[in-house]
Structures are given as structure tokens and as C-alpha cells.
Amino acid sequence: MAQEPIMAAASGVQAIHQAALDEGRFLIQRCRTCSQHVYFPRESCPHCGSVALEWVAPSGRGTVYALTTVRRKPDAGGDYNVSLVDLDEGVRLMSRVDGVAPHDLKIGQRVQARVQLSEGRGLVLFDPLPALAGAAP
Amino acid sequence: MSDLKALRGTAAIAGVATFGCGETPGFTDMELLARSARAAVADAGLKMSDIDGLCTASASATMWAMPVVEYLGLRPRYIDSTMLGGSSFLAHLLPAMHALQSGQCNAVLVCYGSAQRSAQFGRREIGAARRWMDPQPYEAPYEPMQPLSAYALAASRHMFEFGTTRRQLAEVAVAARKWAGLNPEAFMREPMGIEDVLAARMVSDPLSVRDCCLVTDGGGAYVLVRADRARDLPKKPVYVLGNATAVWNRQVSSMHDLTVTAASQSGREAYAMAGLSAKDMDVVQLYDAFTINTLLFLEDLGFCKKGEAGSFVENGGIAPGGHLPVNTNGGGLSCVHPGMYGIFALIEAVRQLRGDGGERQVTGAVTALAHGNGGTLSSQATAILGTAAAL
């Protein structure tokens, strides 16, 4: 998945990131200089300042770090979840965990990313992963 | 830090004023600001023509200092319109102290006004405009109810890590309401109990409508001069002993730890400049946009250990008669919150140190901490103030 350094690209990282999502691909960045992953996408590494950022496809697995249920009237679509998810690669993002009632979701829930396309625009959402047998709680 | 220590106590707040706190239909942002500004300058025993420094900020107008200069008829030699959200008017202190000390200017007016409650162009419209003018493309698609949901996320994590409860959050709202009951200027003064907060309409779990600050109108202003001049002015000077500002992120999703804010840095640096610590503070004003804020700032500013603020506020710990007087005006939760509250936290600290607190006066207060927060736990500014006895 490694490509030419960001700075050689003809458009900014926000557009590149969204274009990939619109094709159903979720990309994050990894710094070749300090080896840390970066999200949201930047033009330079917020950890070490390097411009040697490359796009990588994350595993998509993560853990719910914090969550809230935004209350909304049923006729407006009902309550919905907003979560902060920590990807296994070590970056955090805001998203929504679907496939579970908002009030049943718990911090620590293991989740898997998927890209939802709506009118041609991709958005990263998460679904709960089944608990592994024998896994630590 | 040695240079900043040299600035300790070199400037003093000589005048303060509020105007229109609550509901003032028929007033614009600028009119609320102007009435507060005029009253603060008069309180300082000065004339508007004495003002040669201006600090101000607006949540909507990006070039706000210019219309304020024009409206008040100023010719300032020092202008700071740094906009860090609600902490701005506390963050304005230290640069203004530098400007006073260098002789760039002699009297700085810091002022704010917002008709957020009554304005036709209100919170909803500003929110919609901000989505275009201040985009957050990695959060907005998930429709967090900002700023509330960011604080709800922080509350969820605090509850998860430390066992903090909704009842403990409710203690913060109830304490604020009890203080408001002693303050004639407060907007919401009717008694409210823990059960009322717990039964209130949930907005963004775990925060209910009673965990959220008010939406009011109001203006606030203060005047900062060199300490030697303040001693010749009519009101008891309130000296600025320490001030620091810290920003680590804008988006809540960029916070490294939702239970530790940049107040831990701004507090540490402000205390270092003042040569004081949390245990030295007689009265404390914390920007309580939401109940979780008060808990986070009590911890980050050293009043208790990380994770222990829930038990710290239990049994009326920060209410009148508790072990630490916090938000003695009723705070943003029950007194006033016109969009940005920081200046009101500072004004209440000054009133307490002057002994002007009336029924809510903390007896013999010599030192005060005023803390401002901006954005979604994004900017933090801490001020340590004191009377002449603290110099």
C-alpha cells in the first residue's frame, strides 16, 4: 500500500483521503521517519514534523474509547451513537458504532471498521466484533 | 519562567462590570459590550479616553476588534483580539501585562457582549455558519451535538475510568444553583436538588439539560492597569499574580486522554508564576459549561487527585458551606452564559477579592483562581489573582 510521499501528490491529503473513502477504501497515514500512525490526515507528521507520510490501510479493528448517545425525537430518526474509537494502529477517530442499540454499547467494545457509501460519499462506520473466546475482559 | 515571575503582581484589575446578564431583548452584542465597558471604566475611576489598550473577541465576527474600537471611539496602541473561545478573556491577561510593563499602553479594557439568548441570529445559525467557516470534516459527518457531545464523551470516559457517577455530576449543578440563590444577578435561582438533575431530560448521555450551562444574554468588562497606578484609583486593586494559557487540540477526537485537559499545563504555569499552589486558593471560579468541566478542572488544577473530583464534590463539597467555594456567582450553569463565559469567571473572582460578594461573600478571601475553557475542552487559561495581602 506504500506510495510516493504525500508532498509529491497533486492534491491535499483531505481530498485524497475522501476520494479513497468514496471508492470504499479507508486509509490512514504512517510516518516513515518516526513509524507512528497518523489520523486525521496531515500534510506533515504531528509527532516528528516529517513530510514522509505514506498512506496505509489499517486493520480496521479497534476499541470504543468513549461514547455518547445523542437524543433525538423518534420521528427525526431516533437516538444515535457517537463514539471515539481507538484503532489497533494507535490512532483515535470519531465515528458511529452501528449494529447495536446505542444504549447497549459499552466502552471497551471491540469494533470493526467498514466504509458506508451514501450518494457516492464514503464514511467510516464501525460494527461490534464478537467477543473472542478466552479473551481478557 | 524567571521573566514571568518578574511580572507577578505588576498589573492589577482596577475596574469590573457586567450588564444585561440574563435576558435582554432589544440589545445587540455591541450594546451589551458597550454598556459593560463604560461601567467597568467608570468603576476604575477612569474615562474612556484613558483607555489605550483593547482586548476583545466574538464568537461570530472575525474582525471584532475593529467595530469595537470604532463603537467606543478608542485610539488604542495595544490590541489583542485572540479568539480561543470562552477562555479568551483570561488568555488576554498576560500579553496585556507585557504591554503595560513595556509602556506600550497604560490602561487596557477587556470586554465582551453577547445577545445569544435574545438574538434573531442565534446559536443554531452560528452553528450552521461555523460548519462552513470553521469546518471539522473528520467529526461533523457523525453529527455530534457540539459542543455538548464532546463533553459527554469526556464524561463517559471519566465515569468508565474512575467510577464517577451521574449523581456526582449532579452535585456540581446543585452546588452552582445554591450559590446562584445567594446572587441577585444570577439567572436561575429557584431551588434544585440532585433528583431534579437526575430526572432532567437527557440530551447527550450522560449529560442532561441540567448538566448544561445556560444560554443567556450578557456583557462583561474589566480594566487592567499597572499596579502602581491601581493604588491611586478608587477601587481596591486586585493584582494578577499568575496567568497562563494552553492549547493541545481543537477536536475532542484529537485529545490524547479525555480525562486530562490542557488545564494541567495552564494551571501549573500560572501557579509557578504566582509562587502559589491550589491549597493557597481561597475562592475558585471554573468555567462550568457542563458539570464534567468542574470535575476535570478541580483535578487538573490540583484541588484533588485525578479521578477523585467526584467524591470531592459530594455532600455539597463545593456548595456554600462546603470545603472549597467554587463558582460563587452560580457559574455558567446557573448565573450567566452568553456564549463565552470566561470573563464572568474573572469578574466574580475580582468581586470576591474586593469583598463585594454580598450574601455569597467568602469571608476574608485574599487569593482567587479563575479558569477559562474554550472550544471542546480545547483551550485552557488560568489566572491567579490576589489582594495586596497576597503580594
Describe the secondary-structure layout.
The complex is a heterodimer of chains A (137) and B (391).
Chain A (H helix, E strand, L loop, with lengths): L12 H10 L5 E4 L5 E2 L14 E4 L4 E10 L9 E8 L4 E4 L14 E9 L2 E8 L9
Antiparallel strand pairs in A: 1-2, 1-3, 4-5, 4-7, 5-6, 7-8
Chain B lengths: L1 H6 L3 E12 L6 H15 L9 E4 L8 H8 L5 E3 L7 H4 L1 H10 L4 E8 L8 H11 L14 H15 L3 H15 L13 H5 L3 E3 L2 E2 L8 E10 H4 L7 E10 L15 H12 L8 E4 L4 H10 L8 H5 L17 H4 L7 H13 L12 E8 L4 E8 L5
Parallel strand pairs in B: 2-3, 2-4, 9-10
Antiparallel strand pairs in B: 1-7, 1-8, 4-7, 5-6, 8-11, 10-11
Helix pairs in contact in B: 8-12
Summarize the structure.
The complex is a heterodimer of chains A (137) and B (391). Chain A is mainly beta. In chain A, 7% of the residues lie in helices and 36% in strands.
Fraction in beta strands of chain A = 35-45%
> Oligomeric status of the shown chains?
heterodimer
Order of helices and strands of chain A: HEEEEEEEE
CATH architecture of chain B: 3-Layer(aba) Sandwich
Number of strands of chain A: 8
Would you mind describing this structure in some detail?
The complex is a heterodimer of chains A (137) and B (391). Chain A has 137 residues and is mainly beta. Chain A contains one helix and eight strands, in the order αββββββββ. Chain A has a five-stranded antiparallel sheet. The N and C termini of chain A lie far apart (33 Å). Chain B has a single domain (2-119, 214-390), classed as Thiolase/Chalcone synthase (Peroxisomal Thiolase, Chain A, domain 1), CATH 3.40.47. Chain B is built from 15 helices and eleven strands. In chain B, the strands form two sheets. Chain B has a nine-stranded mixed sheet with strand order 3-2-4-7-1-8-11-10-9, with helices on both faces. The relative contact order of chain B is 0.20. The A-B interface holds A 14, 40, 65-71, 80, 82, 84, 92-96, 103, 107-108, 123 and B 137-139, 141-145, 149, 152-154, 156-157, 160, 201-207, 251-254, 258.
